[in-house]
Amino acid sequence: MFGNKKLLRDGAQLDGVLIESDDGKVLVNAASSYHVKVRVTFEDGTLGEFEDRLHTKDAGMKGIGAVVPVRFDPSDRAKIAVDGPELHRRRETDEAQREAAFAATPEPLASASPSAQLQELWTQKKAMDTRGSELRRTGAPREEVGAWVHESEALDARFRALKAQHPDWAPSAGA
Known about the structure:
Blueprint: H1 4-10, E1 12-21, H2 23-29, E2 33-41, E3 47-55, H3 56-59, E4 67-73, E5 76-82, H4 84-103, H5 114-138, H6 142-165
Antiparallel strand pairs: 1-2, 1-4, 2-3, 4-5
Helix pairs in contact: 4-5, 5-6
């Protein structure tokens, strides 16, 4: 017989997909958790669905279509739950990877030519767009999304200001 702690420690692992999510209520009510419905496909191809709660500290904001880790009792598939500890670990790993990727993006050199500065800003804008897509896909927390919006807007403003001074500039091939 599996209790919830034992299930999360010893249960079989697989990933599920959110098919319902009340994550919008978190934004409105500043709640710390929200209701989700998860669909799983077991190894034998059978489908299962279950309801659970996601905690924002572990999951961030996960919308419909997000993939979440799941644990279940192979002898009783009715005993199934979202694997909160694994979800938290994945979120921390994703955040660290995003931060490392962003930190590796250099600021344009002030001494570089306007064309080189525009090219670097263009490359950074593309990296920011990719980061934004990743934040949405992984259900990043509001604070992280808000920081991304602020950074993206600042980068876009720098690009537009320099581009206005050099309207004939175009990205180089492969950019």
